[in-house]
Design a protein that fits this description.
The complex is a heterodimer of chains A (743) and B (546).
Chain A (H helix, E strand, L loop, with lengths): L3 H39 L7 E9 L8 E6 L5 E6 L3 E6 L4 E7 L8 E6 L5 E6 L3 E13 L5 E14 L7 E8 L4 E8 L4 E7 L10 E7 L8 E6 L5 E6 L3 E6 L7 E7 L8 E6 L5 E6 L4 E8 L7 E9 L6 E6 L5 E6 L4 E5 L5 E5 L6 E6 L5 E6 L3 E8 L7 H5 L14 E2 L10 E2 L2 H32 L2 H16 L2 H43 L2 H4 L8 H26 L4 H8 L9 H25 L3 H9 L4 H30 L2 H6 L17 H8 L8 H37 L1
Antiparallel strand pairs in A: 1-28, 2-3, 3-4, 4-5, 6-7, 7-8, 8-9, 10-11, 11-12, 12-13, 14-15, 15-16, 16-17, 18-19, 19-20, 20-21, 22-23, 23-24, 24-25, 26-27, 27-28, 29-30
Helix pairs in contact in A: 1-14, 3-9, 3-11, 4-9, 5-7, 5-9, 9-11, 10-11, 11-14, 13-14
Chain B lengths: L1 H4 L4 H31 L7 E5 L4 E11 L15 E6 L3 H4 L3 E5 L3 E5 L5 E5 L5 E10 L2 E4 L5 H47 L3 H36 L2 E6 L5 E5 L3 E5 L6 H17 L2 E2 L4 E2 L2 H32 L4 H13 L4 H24 L14 H26 L2 H9 L4 H30 L2 H4 L28 H11 L3 H39 L3
Antiparallel strand pairs in B: 1-2, 1-5, 2-3, 3-4, 6-7, 6-11, 7-8, 7-9, 9-10, 12-13
Classes of the chains: A alpha+beta (743), B alpha+beta (546).
Chain lengths: 743, 546
């Protein structure tokens, strides 16, 4: 018979069992699931890019003549196409219909033979078969109507129309750029391989203001082979020319009156085929070079004292080949990606820094005539030879990350060689983000190394003394003190290190270094004196109370080195230790340096190592030590030959756990170093660690962006690293416990 | 006998002792340093008048005295033991800087003028100098007149009462109006977003706008009364001179308090110290956190720790009970135990990153999209706040509670369990009546350690909701009283922020030391409590062994 009470008890038992099982397991699972969440935030870095074709537009149905150039607005709603006979047609992509068509009167009765288009698709130059060039700008004005709908009104703004070649020869290649000083520059070449430079200034917003500072000259004397490609940068300074025999020529147009040939270089090794493509990447530092066979490379100039003009072209990146002649190109105006298209109709999306080929955009199979990357870099339009246009949406959130950019040496723009660099943001939009984790990982290891150098000896010695030699009454006082030391918030230690210790150390650096010699000397001196004292005084003191003498000895040692420091500095280091350091080690002494971090983080780690070590040392079974002492071994012999070897796994795990703690320490490093991500193991400068880097950069990192995910990746690295270290240490410790139990 | 004393090893034993001694010296040195420096903030230091060799006078508090570093000296003067003193000369609005180093060779004579006054102001830091006149409207009281300071105190009290009244109106009454207007504004946004029927929406919005109008009128009225109070208060001012006779007129509204340290007796200074401690704990910060009190930071820290405990303790105890009492002990449980143990060693910043990604962007972002779509893109929950910070820290401290509880559970003698079971108790009865009460001190230890850790942790909080200056506390008189979505201030972050982000670090340093002292006191007290409870627990089970 079950009574009511009994039933109730059983019911509660069941409910509680469920709650505990459910609650317990959920808690544990969710705590462990942290790792998977962090990892899942970092993984999209490797997902690559994807695209979908938004629409296909057949221009031959709408426009009578052949389109040769296209462009697209920032919302990917309006496409414009320029035809051979000089018309500009604006096409609504969604409705697939022409909304505006403009005929350029000046180009009437001629055929357009060459085109040039700037990075935002808005400055356009056209050259015709009569040796004339027509320059204009395309604007997309967006207006909001009363009901909140956006309407885009395309417009065309005339800039200039010139007879550039008085012999009326067709213009075969043309490049037209405008710089921030409203300086307009055109370099054109005709079918006789004559190169023209034409430049002027003009304020487009001022209708009254005519063309000024007109300059016209020829550049033929600088180039003696047939030109197959040419491109000017947006500063209107660097002119790149590609020749029929595969050479890349760099001409400086800094001074129009005095153009200078800086360098001629073979663009591709063992390949003399003509250069067919030149295009500048956002920022105008790197130029993409492509040739007849579809090879693709990037070039940039670096400073070089040995050359005549101080500049030298280098080839930092090589990209995936096209199989055929590569001629069409469009660079992103948001990041360092670019699209290339070849004769056989294949389009690739590449990224400069990572050398990744992210996508192949498949539209039509006809040869590619022109490409237009959308201004927001989220789409592109491709014009094919058969007058068809494919418009793509591109989703390319993290083009910059590969294992190589994260962990390898990368040749960044403006650097003279491949390097490990962390620099996530820059002052300008065309900044090339540098995401190498190596300086941060090495910084972490550097900080940890200096902390451990300081902490391990002190913690080990302290633990050995406490467990083996000290008097129990001292021990009862030491353990809580060390626990308090462990409980000190790291922000406190960091603050003291950064604002008190660092400036102090700068003043008394030599004295502090002397401490490492003076204090041991004092101890030896103290012991010698101690042994001279008649034993009737010394024997009254309990054994294990050496500490009472050692503490004052150290304090005296401190004062001695404080006094000695300036003297040593004056007579041995020439009066200024910082000068001495920079002369002898070739290092700069920074106020917040690794020595400060070593002291501070060491201070934080000492109690961790001490506690675990002391635990392992004092739980060595007393049968072992007693046996050793009974056989006549001294206390020291017992400690080093019996206790230390037996407890060595425990010491190992203590050091590992301390190591793990130092690796992840954030506030101390944040406050006690300058947080500069440098690659140097010098003790006189600082570092930036993975953890401090997260704390510094994550408030500024946009949600879901590359930097945000890379910071999650560094958190994952930290998590896994410390987790492994701690697990190994824990397993070792458990084994040791088992061993003790057996002894 | 002598031989034995020289026997191998003694020297090494002394060396190991050295390792320990250095650690002990460091920890006590650190604590001493913080206490000594923290104390300065509360102490009314004497004002020293120094006559320099060039005839100029300086007046200020001596901050420190040190040997001039060699690299600041020409070769001929190196190692001669030359000293310099750092003087806090205040008067930032007159001089542009508050501190001055004075080489002892430049000192002609030293004096402590009895009338020298230190005026704490709401802006520009302290003023050091002499009060010459008190000006009320057109009436001028000279400081040489008898009872001058009594009159001054009386009027200072009067003005401070006015200030209190202004503050009260601004904070509670105008604050309430602002709160109402903001609520109505959000109401409009909500209607615009949800109400599809245009005419209904417009009607409702027009009603609300009328209410806003009403509130605005109230606001105007209150503002007028504040303005008149301000005008009244602005009629009181004092005319002062610095040590070199430079005039400076200070409105009594800008004066926090004044004192004449050179006339104060030791007991006066003690009284001053207690009032200063009171101010430090219960007042709000001033001058970008470098002066005043840290009350919001204390409040934020305590509230965050309490909310965290609400999550950590039940969940941690459940997990420990499951691991120790309910789960089948095997390899899997052992591995889980190791994993939980090791989570305590995972860097705190990693937990912060998790809190940012999961709680703020994922959970908070989702809540915003479902419940507050009309407020977007301004986030409500999708930004740092006290709830997210507490949850993040509860994950961080969960292992501490689990480990401590488990330890307590293992120490409960088998006999107690078996006896209860033998009497026919169900497992839950055993757990709830025998085990949990017995393990209570252990759980408490875990909780206290978790609180201590949370109180001192900064890195994860920096990215999950701590700010340098929170305009409002997360707790106030408006429904629902506790605002878990608000950002908050924290003692540890206060240290980092004031010490490393403030423009005038030198002037902020005493404040940082004091805050550090307070934080250490809290953390150390919590830890000592935990230690005592644990020691008692151990003793109890040692004696009650079956």
């Amino acid at each position: 018979m079950m009574n009511k009470h009994h039933k109730k008890a059983l019911f509660y038992d069941k409910v509680s069992k469920f709650v505990i099982y459910f609650g317990g397991i959920t808690t544990i699972v969710s705590v462990i699931a942290i790792l998977f969440f962090i990892l899942s935030e970092a993984l999209p870095l490797w997902y690559g890019a994807d695209y979908n074709k938004k629409s296909d537009i057949n221009l031959s149905e709408k426009i009578s003549r052949k389109p040769i150039l296209i462009g697209i607005d920032e919302y990917k709603e309006i496409l414009f196409a320029i035809t051979e006979e000089g018309t500009v047609d604006f096409i609504d992509i969604v409705k697939d219909s022409i909304i505006k068509s403009i005929k350029i009167d000046e180009l009437k009765d001629s055929k357009i033979t060459s085109t040039s288009k700037s990075i935002l698709n808005n400055y356009i130059g056209l050259g015709n078969d009569k040796g004339q060039i027509y320059l204009f700008q395309i604007n997309f004005k967006s207006e909001f109507s009363n009901d909140g709908k956006r309407e885009i009104i395309p417009d065309l703004k005339f800039i200039n129309f010139v007879q550039i070649d008085s012999s009326f020869t067709p213009i075969t290649k043309l490049t037209f750029r405008v710089n921030d000083n409203k300086n307009y520059k055109v370099v054109a070449i005709n079918s006789n391989n004559e190169i023209f430079l034409y430049s002027f200034t003009k304020d487009l917003n001022d209708y009254e203001n005519p063309v000024e500072n007109l300059h016209f000259s020829r550049l033929d004397r600088l180039v003696n082979s047939k030109v197959t490609a040419l491109e000017l940068d947006n500063f209107c300074e660097k002119l790149m020319i590609g020749t029929f025999d595969g050479n890349l020529i760099y001409i400086s147009l800094r001074d129009d009156n005095n153009p200078v040939l800086i360098q001629t270089i073979k663009a591709f090794k063992d390949d003399n085929s003509p250069i067919t493509l030149l295009g500048f990447i956002l920022g105008d530092q790197s130029v993409i070079v492509g040739n007849e066979r579809g090879k693709l490379s990037s070039y940039m100039r670096i400073l070089d004292d040995k050359t005549e003009y101080g500049w030298k072209l280098v080839n930092p990146h090589i990209f995936q080949n096209h199989k055929n002649r590569v001629e069409s190109f469009s660079a992103s105006s948001r990041n360092k990606t670019f699209i290339t298209g070849d004769k056989s109709g294949i389009t690739y999306l590449h990224h400069l820094t990572s050398e990744r080929t992210l996508l192949e955009l498949i539209g039509d199979s006809s040869s590619i005539k022109d490409i237009a990357y959308s201004p927001k870099a989220d789409g592109a339009a491709v014009l094919y030879e058969n007058s068809k246009v494919a418009v793509f949406d591109i989703n390319n959130p993290h083009p910059e990350t590969t294992l190589k950019t994260l962990f390898g040496k990368v040749w960044y723009e403006g650097y003279s060689k491949p390097e490990f660099v962390w620099q996530s943001t820059g002052g300008t939009d065309d900044f090339e983000p540098k995401f190498s984790l190596i300086p941060l990982i090495l910084g972490t290891l550097k900080g940890t190394l200096y902390a451990m150098l300081f902490a391990i000896p002190l913690a080990l010695m302290g633990a050995l003394y406490t467990s083996q030699f000290s008097h129990p009454s001292i021990k009862n006082f030491i353990k809580p003190t060390v626990e308090i030391m462990a409980a000190l918030p790291s922000v406190v230690i960091g603050f003291i290190a950064g604002l008190w210790l660092a400036p102090l150390l700068e003043k008394i650096f030599v004295s502090v270094m002397l401490l490492f010699i003076i204090v041991p000397l004092m101890i030896i001196l103290g012991l010698i004196l101690w042994n001279r004292v008649p034993s009737k005084f010394t024997s009254r003191l309990k054994s294990g109370s050496e500490l009472l003498f050692i503490v004052p000895l150290i304090i005296i040692g401190f004062f001695i080195s404080q006094w000695l420091g300036p003297i040593v500095e004056l007579y041995f280091l020439g009066g200024d230790y910082r000068l001495w350091i920079s002369e002898v080690f070739n290092q700069q002494y920074d106020q917040r340096n690794s020595i400060v971090v070593g002291f501070a983080m060491g201070f934080a780690v000492i109690p961790v190592i001490f506690t675990i070590c002391e635990d392992a040392l004092s739980s060595v079974p007393s049968s072992l030590t007693s046996a050793s002492l009974a056989l006549g071994a001294t206390k020291w012999q017992t400690a080093t030959r019996i206790v230390l070897p037996t407890a060595s796994p425990g010491i190992f795990s203590a050091i590992m756990i301390g190591f793990g703690r130092a690796v992840g320490e954030t506030m101390i490093v944040l406050m006690a170093t300058g947080n500069t991500p440098i690659l140097s193991f010098s003790p006189f400068n600082g570092m930036r660690t993975l953890s401090a880097n997260i704390a510094v950069e994550i408030p500024e990192a946009p949600y879901g962006g590359t930097l945000y995910r890379i910071l999650f990746l560094s958190a994952t690295i930290l998590f896994i690293f410390t987790f492994i270290i701690n697990t190994v240490a824990e397993i070792v410790r458990q084994r040791l416990r088992k061993k003790y139990a057996q002894l | 006998m002598k031989n034995k004393r020289y026997s191998s090893g003694d020297i090494f034993i002394w060396f190991t002792g050295m390792g320990l001694a250095i650690s002990l010296i460091m920890i006590s040195g650190l604590l001493l340093l913080i206490v000594l420096n923290g104390k300065n903030y509360f102490w009314a230091a004497d004002l020293k008048e120094i006559k320099l060799t060039d005839g100029k006078l300086v007046l200020g508090e001596v901050i420190k005295e040190e040997l001039i570093p060699n690299f600041n000296l020409p070769d001929s003067l190196k190692n001669k033991g030359l000293k310099r003193i750092q003087l806090k000369i205040g008067n930032r609005d007159l001089y542009g800087f508050d501190f001055q180093w004075i080489d002892e060779r430049r000192i002609l004579s030293v004096n402590y003028p009895l009338d020298a006054v230190s005026i704490e102001r709401f802006e520009f830091g302290n003023f050091y100098g002499f009060i010459k006149e008190l000006i009320i409207k057109e009436t001028v009281y000279k400081s040489s007149s008898p009872n001058f300071y009594a009159t001054l105190n009386e009027n200072l009290n009067l003005v401070s009462n006015l200030r209190e009244r202004i503050k009260k109106i601004e904070k509670s009454e105008i604050g309430k109006i602002n709160y109402n207007i903001e609520k109505l504004r959000l109401e409009i946004k909500k209607i615009e977003y949800h109400q599809k029927n245009k005419s209904i929406a417009e009607k409702k919005i027009a009603d609300i706008k009328k209410e806003i109008e009403k509130e605005n009128l109230n606001y105007e009225r209150l503002k007028r009364s504040v303005d008149s109070l301000r005008e009244k208060a602005s009629m009181y001012s004092i005319y002062c001179e610095d040590i070199n006779g430079r005039p400076k007129s200070i409105a009594l509204m800008d004066v926090v308090k004044y004192y004449r340290p050179n006339q104060m007796s030791y007991s006066d200074k003690l009284t001053y110290m207690f009032s200063k401690i009171f101010e430090f704990i219960f007042d709000e910060p001033r001058e970008s956190n470098t002066e005043g009190g840290v009350f919001p930071a204390i409040f934020g820290t305590v509230m965050m720790v309490l909310i965290m405990s609400l999550f950590t303790v039940p969940l941690g105890v459940l997990a420990a009970l499951y691991l120790r009492e309910y789960a089948k002990q095997g390899t899997l449980v052992r591995l889980v135990r190791i994993a939980v143990n090791n989570l305590a060693g995972v860097p705190s910043i990693v937990f912060g990153v998790f809190g940012l990604g999961f709680f703020i962007y994922f959970v908070g972002g989702t809540i915003d999209q479902i419940f507050y779509p009309e407020r977007l893109p301004t986030p409500t929950w999708g930004t740092g706040g006290i709830l997210w910070a507490s949850l993040t820290l509860s994950l961080l401290t969960m292992p501490v509670v689990i480990v401590a509880t488990e330890e307590a559970l293992t120490q409960i003698p088998r006999g107690m369990r078996e006896a209860a079971l033998a009497l026919g108790a169900t497992k839950w009865q055993v757990t709830s009546r025998i085990i949990i009460p017995a393990a209570m001190p252990g759980i408490l230890t875990g909780l206290i350690l978790a609180m201590a850790r949370a109180a001192g942790e900064v890195a994860p909080l920096m990215i999950t909701g701590v700010v340098k200056l929170a305009p409002t506390l997360p707790f106030d008189s408006y429904f629902p009283f506790i605002h878990l979505d608000r950002k908050f201030m924290h003692l540890g972050f206060h240290i980092y922020d004031v010490g490393f982000q403030s423009p005038n670090i030198e002037a902020a340093l005493p404040m940082v030391f004091t805050t550090t002292l307070l934080l250490i006191l809290i953390v150390v007290l919590l830890n000592i409590t935990a230690m005592i409870i644990r020691a008692r627990l151990r003793k109890k089970y040692k004696t009650s062994a079956f």
